[in-house]
TrEMBL record:
Residues 423-496 form the AMP-binding enzyme C-terminal domain. Residues 501-524 are annotated as: Disordered. It is an enzyme of class 6 (ligase). The keyword Kinase does not apply. Signal peptide: none annotated. It comes from Paraburkholderia bannensis. Residues 10-372 form the AMP-dependent synthetase/ligase domain. This is 2-furoate---CoA ligase. Pfam families: AMP-binding, AMP-binding_C. One of its GO terms (biological process) is fatty acid metabolic process. Residues 509-524 have a biased composition (Polar residues). The keyword GTP-binding does not apply. GO terms for molecular function: 2-furoate-CoA ligase activity; medium-chain fatty acid-CoA ligase activity.
Length: 524
């Protein structure tokens, strides 16, 4: 299999004059971008990094970030991208855990880098006059005379590690996920195939390049000689301007960002007619948002992609509105199963319709081989050649997968296992509900009680929502016992609902008075 450096060379050779990268006023064709990438690759080696060394990158989605990613692939240097909002202790942990030999950052992340003792011991490349730097990005990018490097442009093989992605670490310290060039290329090829991308697609590069979705968008565009339009931090109006200005053809976002696009006042007048393909991942999309997006964009393809940093694709559904809630079937590089919730072996398979834990075959082309320096995490998640995802779900009678949540998010009330996603799907269809999250709150009698946290679009009270649930096909024991109206639903930087914050009371109540609670407080 080709390494990623040679993968990029394919586009340089096929379509040298095709626009490859846009970031504000910066616009580069493949032929223009290629020598810049090579210069940076050489600059990293001159900084002391060798093949297999790790480079920590704490940047927003800017052209320098995309350039560094590709330079690492050519130089055989392992890119370790980190959230630009990272706290000092997170920078400290990742520098130490990854054994980073250098760090690249910008002013927005400078304080965290400055407060990391480990970061102060390695070369620090600062962008935009970032304080505390030992050198600049301009010093990396300066054109050099490279007689040998011109012909010998790639120093990596398909078996070398391409990058290490750190998981969010919402329940503890983050886990490093090392992925080889072949894993990354297989994931990108699958992304192209499963989203039916054609040559010359154009996408919005807003999903962060420290997240698997952002990296996949970057690589996929190179595979099809396409355009990656950088959006440094999320802004719905700016995203709509980019779609119109650059005639973007495909979007791959988390549901939260789609919600923000539709909610922005500029959406009604924005020209989004060039967008023909929608894809989402990172979190389930509720039925209400699915319907609104389908009506707003009328896409020719609407893809629900379910996966993770560890194994890019678990399953894919290329017609997300046909069976709302369905994650479809295993991706082209994947095998998956649902095993019983308490299963220790991949052979303890759940029945059709029975909720269990979703597991994935580690022999798949996109699958990682184990966590970085985390034998404890390997012991928990890797069993007999299968990756135990920690996600819950079931197969229906047609063989389609439904993802119901996380094992840790499962609400156990009165001895019943209750999935938040089922309830959220029902409530999302109420016309007055803008966003909804459901969580289990400690209860002396039931163990946990089901509580729905609602961000309203129009006025509705708890009684109205309770009536809505009673009139739906939601079984009675899953019906929320309390409704809490909030200004916003807390989410991670990539749009995942943070139920633990809701359970801990870390939210802002709706500025309007709380509506009365429903009278039903027992399991009828």
């Amino acid at each position: 299999m080709l390494d990623l450096g040679r993968t990029f060379l394919q586009s340089v050779e096929r379509s040298p004059n095709a626009l490859a990268l846009v970031d504000g006023d910066v616009q580069l064709t493949y032929a223009q971008w290629y020598p810049i990438i090579l210069n940076v690759a050489v600059g990293l080696r001159e900084l002391g990094l060798q093949r297999g060394d790790r480079l920590l990158v704490v940047l927003q989605n800017r052209w320098e970030m995309a350039t560094l990613h590709w330079a690492g692939q050519f130089a055989g240097i392992v890119i370790v991208p980190l959230n630009w909002r990272a706290k000092p202790e997170e920078v400290e942990y990742c520098v130490t855990d990854a054994g980073a030999k250098a760090i690249v950052y910008e002013p927005v992340s400078a304080d965290s880098v400055a407060q990391s003792a480990a970061a102060q011991k390695v070369p620090r490349v600062g962008l935009d006059d970032a304080p505390g730097r030992t050198t600049t990005f301009d010093a990396l990018i300066v054109e050099r005379t490279r007689s040998g490097d011109v012909t010998d442009t790639t120093h990596a093989t398909a078996d070398d590690i391409s990058l290490i992605l750190y998981t969010s670490g919402t329940t503890g310290r983050g886990k490093g996920v090392p992925r080889r060039h072949r894993h990354e290329r297989a994931g990108a090829l699958a992304h192209v195939a499963q989203n039916l991308y054609r040559r010359g697609e154009r996408t919005l590069g807003v999903m962060p390049l420290y997240h698997t979705m952002g990296v996949r968008s970057l690589l996929a565009m190179a595979l099809v000689d396409g355009l990656f339009v950088c959006v440094r931090r999320w802004n719905a109006k700016l995203a709509l301007e980019c779609i119109s200005k650059h005639a973007l053809t495909c979007l791959y976002l988390v549901p939260t960002l789609y919600h923000d696009l539709l909610a922005d006042s500029a959406f009604a007048s924005a020209d989004t007619s060039s967008v023909r393909k929608l894809g989402f991942a990172g979190a389930p999309m509720n039925d209400g948002l699915l319907k609104r997006l389908s009506a707003a964009f009328e896409p020719e393809l609407f893809v629900n992609h379910y996966g993770s940093s560890e194994v890019y694709t678990f399953s894919i559904d290329q017609d997300a509105t046909k069976k709302p809630g369905s994650a479809g079937r295993a991706g082209i590089n994947t095998r998956l199963r649902v095993v019983k919730l308490d299963a220790l072996s991949p052979d303890e398979i759940a029945e059709v319709g029975e909720e269990g834990q979703i597991i994935v075959d580690l022999l798949g082309d996109e699958a990682f081989e184990g966590y970085w320096n985390r034998a404890d995490a390997n012991a928990k998640s890797l069993r007999d050649g299968w990756y135990f995802t920690g996600d819950t779900g079931y197969f229906d009678a047609d063989g389609d997968l439904y993802v119901t949540g996380r094992v840790d998010d499962m609400i156990i009330s009165g001895g019943e296992n209750i999935s938040p996603v089922d309830i959220e799907s029902v409530l999302s269809l109420h016309p007055a509900v803008d966003e909804v999250a459901v969580a289990g709150i400690k209860d002396e009698r039931w163990g946990q009680r089901v509580v729905a946290f609602i961000k309203r679009r129009d006025y509705v009270d708890a009684e109205g929502l309770d009536t809505w649930c009673r009139q739906s096909d939601l079984v009675n024991f899953k019906r929320p016992r309390d409704y809490v109206f909030v200004d916003d639903i807390p989410k991670s930087p990539v749009g995942k609902i943070l139920r633990r914050k809701l359970q801990a009371g870390e939210y802002t109540p709706d500025s309007n008075a709380q509506a009365a609670q429903p009278t039903a407080t027992t399991k009828e």
